[in-house]
Amino acid sequence: METIRIIDSPKHVNEIVKIGVWVTNKRSSGKIAFLQLRDGSGFFQGVVLKNNISEEKFTQAKELRQETSLYVTGEIHEDKRSHFGYEIQINDFEIVGESEDYPITPKEHGIDFY
């Protein structure tokens, strides 16, 4: 399996790849979690479906903190609905560095407010 950068995602549609990323934000609802991810080349959406991953990993995905670093593995899909145009359907991830509670959140005073 090839390790790629986010900027190279369009070249790997429908392929399973590995990407080293940081979590910039997340939201979850029931059986799905959306992770906003970034690396040095761009931003991306990761989708974690409860049915495609172990229960333990799904719980971990819902509890990830901002700026946690990960290797995510999954299939790249083009998705016009996605803010980034592409997304990765995550079927596994490895936490490389877990962050403490990030003091700045995506609120009026957070990094997303710039």
Automatic annotation (TrEMBL):
Q: Which SUPFAM superfamilies match?
A: Nucleic acid-binding proteins (SSF50249)
Keyword Aminoacyl-tRNA synthetase on this protein? yes
CDD domains to which the protein is assigned, alphabetical: AsnRS_cyto_like_N (cd04323)
**Naturally occurring in which organism (per UniProt):** Lentilactobacillus kosonis
Instruction: Give the GO biological process terms.
Output: asparaginyl-tRNA aminoacylation
- EC number(s) recorded for this UniProt protein: 6.1.1.22
Write down the top EC class of this protein: ligase
Q: Name one GO molecular function term.
A: asparagine-tRNA ligase activity
What keywords appear on the UniProt entry?
Aminoacyl-tRNA synthetase, Ligase, Protein biosynthesis
Query: What name appears for this protein in its UniProt entry?
Result: Asparaginyl-tRNA synthetase
Q: Indicate whether Ligase appears among the record's keywords.
A: yes
Boundaries of every OB domain copy? 17-96
